[in-house]
Amino acid sequence: MNLSFDTQILAKSYEYLPTCHSTSDMMMEKIKSSDVAEGHLILTFHQTKGRGQRGNTWEVTPHKNLTFTLYLNPKIALIKQFNLSILVSVALMDALQFFTNKPVKIKWPNDIYVFDDSWKKIGGILVENQIKGAELRSSVIGIGLNINQTEFGVAHAVSLKLLENKDFDLLAVLNKVLVELEKNYLAFDAEWELLKYNYTKNLLYYGEKGKFEDGRGGFEGEVLGVNESGNLLINVDNTVERFDIKELRFIV
């Protein structure tokens, strides 16, 4: 498959695999055995064992969705590695908002949700960083987006086709995603404050009451944003509480 995208760095080198277990696993194997150009893309339309946050699987119908992984060499201090999740999340949100008028939000840390009668998941991101000492050496960015699938085995899932009642060109959507990702990546330092602002104000339940659950049980709170380490900050009964990804579940 010959691919061409409107980018300068991302996907200038690529591999298209008719099927694979996980594009992120394939990328991890590749960077261990050979030199990989920054922006390298591994793409498949039939991923059998995609991975998500907390070890969850990302199951998709073949040839209906986007499942791909990018390789990056970001110049980010180790303590600020969550900034990469912010960059990617905002890019995906902006790209998907281009194709639908339904509200698109980021469910912390980096799932993408759309409001269609209720909040439903349309995409997910898995960022895996390679670290040496106090340095962030490289990042593998795995992305899954529901595009033309119409039936899901889980609740609260949606696709662009279900939202807009039409089929989408998978490569056209991928091109838009890559363009938005590259725009944010190249402007990362100069536009960081704006990126963080856009991430924060578009977090699910930012500025409004949401329902959550942790080890204590269910509670209500208002999302305030994230700290430098990527912990979620929630106003609970006028007290700012901090949560790690393994400590909190959204109730949507």
List keywords for this structure.
2 domains, SH3 type barrels, BirA Bifunctional Protein, domain 2, alpha+beta, 252 residues
Structure characterization notes:
This protein is α+β, with helices and mostly antiparallel strands and 252 residues long. The chain has 2 domains: 14-201, Bira Bifunctional Protein, Domain 2 (BirA Bifunctional Protein, domain 2); 209-251, SH3 type barrels (Roll). The protein is built from 5 helices and 14 strands. It has helices at 23-33, 82-97, 160-164, 170-186, 192-201; strands at 14-17, 41-44, 50-51, 57-58, 66-72, 104-107, 111-116, 118-132, 135-145, 209-214, 217-226, 232-236, 239-243, 249-251. The protein has a 7-stranded mixed β-sheet, with helices on both faces. It has a 5-stranded antiparallel β-sheet with strand order 13-12-11-10-14. It has a two-stranded antiparallel sheet with strand order 3-4. A hairpin with a 2-residue loop joins strand 12 (232-236) and strand 13. Helix 2 packs across helix 4 (170-186). It is globular, with a radius of gyration of 18 Å. The N and C termini lie far apart (39 Å). The mean pLDDT is 93.
